């Protein structure tokens, strides 16, 4: 790792805006979930339907897409300087995992600990051909393991019909009454165990890797550097993704009806719902991205770019949100899960996002990076000479 520490890079405001939308979506899902406590006693109402259909899984997918895009930007800038960033990127993932480990003590749903080790898989793909990247991404999106499990469950094999380990998660109920010490201790192992089982059993790990590669490929193609060059392709893909999303959403029932019922194969139909649900999430995320880019190319650009500072502080705001709201919702703090109506929490979330947008705008008038972004970059290069104050 011999590359010199670079100066603060020039920004692509469209990419920063996409990161901001990812942050906004993830945060609003967290507020809807009361940072997971909601799932101890979910309510099948309109709010539930809206968030599970249009937000959950989509914002997370956008975050992972942006991660792959960021990988390309880092590696490409190093290539332009004539240096190899691979070793530095691997160390950067170690640092991110450490930040995630600390964050996960407060909020076990932390995604950084998942993204960091999986990010290492991107390194050998940096110099792979475009077709190789797309084929690998396509194979991962198909979810081969889930397809195998569906076939095995439908044929009555016991291992495929076993109750998923993640279904035994007691975290949401536990957080209602746990003390701070109990929560911290539980999050070290039990909380992480259930989280990882969820990512494994739902195919999320394959999805993350696929979207990493898609982000890498889009970055290499310059889709977000010169979106006007891809107008026809964007609009064609938008129509395709809308069709895929509709097919996945409404295809669950007829496909499930073709499989044995819960008596003969307890998991077969549930696995089909999981598979199509994952495809629906990715397709809808793609729809959102293309609509944002379309709007960005029109008169809405100035308005959308007001969100860009939030995208530049994604890491800082992501961790800060948990540090503020977990003590508000959880039993060791204010226990707001008992007395704060969900609708009120969501409106508070919108207000808090407005505050973050203002803070981000003011922050970057004086600083090059957000606080955690600076720490991450300084640790990556193992120097404090990374520019911070303007």
From TrEMBL:
Xref: Pfam families: DUF418
Coiled coil regions in record: none
Keyword check for Metal-binding: no
Protein name in UniProt: DUF418 domain-containing protein
InterPro entries reported for this sequence: Bact_Transport_Assoc, DUF418
Keyword Magnesium (UniProt): no
Transmembrane segments: 12-29, 49-73, 85-105, 111-126, 133-154, 196-216, 237-259, 271-293, 314-333, 345-364
The entry's keywords: Membrane, Transmembrane, Transmembrane helix
Limits of the DUF418 domain: 218-382
Source organism, top-level taxon: Bacteria
